[in-house]
Amino acid sequence: MRITPQRFIALLLLGSALLAGCLYELTENRQTEAQPTKQSVINALRANNAGTHQEPWGSDAREILRRWPVEQGPVRIWADGRVAGAALEGVEMVEKRLGFPLFEWVDSESAAQVVMLHRSKECSLQVNGGRDTDRYFDTPPVEGVGMLKGPIYVHLNQRECGDRYNVPVRAAMVAAGFVRLHTMRPPGPSEWKALETLYHNSPGTTLADADILW
C-alpha cells in the first residue's frame, strides 16, 4: 500500500495521540498508587482534622488530633433507610482499614452520635449539626481536649456519582472525624494513613507529638 504524505501525517498524529493517552494513564496510575510520606500524612491530618481553626471541630491555638474516645465505647450511628446501604458500605470499609469496630448501629436517631441522612442534591456530601442542611453547628461537637461528642449529621446522595467519588467511604471518614472529605474528591493513600494515625494516638495529642503512621 502506497503511503501518501497526507496518510503519513494522519498516522503520525494518531500515534502521538495514542502515546499521549498511554502516558497520561501511566501517570494517573502512578499518582493513584503513590506511597504516602510522613509529611504527606501530616499534611492530610492538618487539612482534615488537626488544624488550629478546623471547622466544625472548633479552634485551638495548637494543632491537636480530634477523634471519638473509642476507649470509652464505639460511636453510636443511625442511618435513614434511603442511605442505609451506602452508610453501611462506608462504615465497613473504614473499620476494615482501622482494624477495629469504630461504630455501633442503633435503632433511633435520638440515640445516635452520628446521623446519616439522604440529601436531595445528587452526588453530594455535607456535614453539619442537624437535619436542616442550612444549619451549621451552634457549638463545636467536641468536649474536653480533642474528644468528639456529636451529634454529627452527615447528608449524602451518591446518585449520578459512579465509583469515582466513593461517597459512602467519604461519608464514613467524615463521621470518623475527617471533616474536609465532604469536598468532592475521593480519599487518597495519605488520608487513609492519616485516619489510622488519628486513632493510633490519644485524643488531644498535638500534631507535633503524634506518632505518624506512614
Question: Could you describe the 3D structure shown?
Answer:
The protein has five helices and seven strands; from the N terminus they run ααβαββββββαα. With 214 residues, it is an alpha/beta fold.
Structure described in brief:
With 214 residues, this protein is an alpha/beta fold.
Distance between the termini: 57 Å
Q: Helix amount, in percent? A: 25-40%
Question: What is the radius of gyration?
Answer: 21 Å
- Main sheet record: 5 strands, mixed
Average pLDDT works out at 81
Which term fits the overall shape?
Answer: globular
Give descriptors for this structure:
alpha/beta; 7 strands; single chain
Helices and strands in order, then pairings?
Elements: H1 5-33, H2 38-50, E1 75-79, H3 84-98, E2 103-105, E3 114-118, E4 124-128, E5 142-143, E6 147-148, E7 152-157, H4 167-176, H5 189-200
Parallel strand pairs: 1-2, 1-3, 3-7
Antiparallel strand pairs: 4-7, 5-6
Helix pairs in contact: 2-5, 3-4
